[in-house]
Design brief:
The chain has 10 helices and no strands. The protein is mainly alpha-helical and 203 residues long. This is MptD family putative ECF transporter S component.
Length: 203
């Protein structure tokens, strides 16, 4: 029984996830703001750039906690944040992303496996990219109003509509996001070995 309890996420684990997510989400907001004036970069690259930078913070949490449920919690909280921002219909979508990402981590000590973390983080990141298209598929008219109030110009909206209605362009975005997510985990793994492990932040 005690061994089972140790495998469940505890309060300290949740606090670690929350701390890493706050940093990651703050970075994502900055990336979105900086790339918004450049529609092509914003639409096709912002999710990937976020995945590249955020990989390090995810890996810190993964290596410190090493318990199943981490990616599920990570993607679920991200979905809840989207819901609070006005996209409540995205919550079920991100629950599905959370489940798929967590299923990628089935097995023992997978959260300390470089390869499995790479796969799980890539799936989560692709889910984030595709999630940007869901509001347009769900309700284009209401999304236009919300996007306009957030600073989107007509050119960006038209490019976004073209992207989400073209399988080829969506695939391009998925590939860019996947590549940057993988590169992010490779870079993050090196940082963990060179700095975080020496500092005792991760085991």
């Amino acid at each position: 029984m005690e061994q089972t309890l140790k495998k469940k996420l505890g309060v300290r684990d949740i606090m670690t996830i929350a701390a890493m997510m706050v940093i990651n989400f703050a970075i994502a907001m900055v990336i979105g703001t900086v790339t918004l004036p450049f529609p092509a970069v914003y639409l096709y690259g912002s999710a990937g750039i976020d995945a590249f930078i955020g990989a390090t913070f995810y890996l810190v949490a993964a290596n410190r906690i090493n318990k199943h449920g981490l990616l599920f919690a990570w993607a679920t909280v991200y979905g809840l944040i989207q819901g609070v921002m006005g996209y409540m219909f995205l919550v079920p979508y991100f629950l599905i992303v959370a489940l798929i990402a967590e299923l990628c981590m089935v097995g023992k000590n997978t959260y300390r496996s470089a390869v499995r973390n790479r796969i799980g983080w890539m799936v989560n990141s692709i889910g984030n990219f595709v999630g940007c298209a869901v509001p347009l598929w769900w309700s284009w008219d209401s999304y236009q109003e919300m996007a306009a109030s957030s600073g989107f110009d007509a050119n960006t909206l038209n490019m976004q509509l073209s992207m989400v209605t073209s399988p080829e362009l969506m695939l391009l975005g998925v590939v860019i996001t996947a590549v940057l997510a993988i590169l992010g985990t490779l870079f993050g793994q090196r940082l963990l070995r060179k700095h975080f492990q020496k500092a005792g932040i991760v085991g």
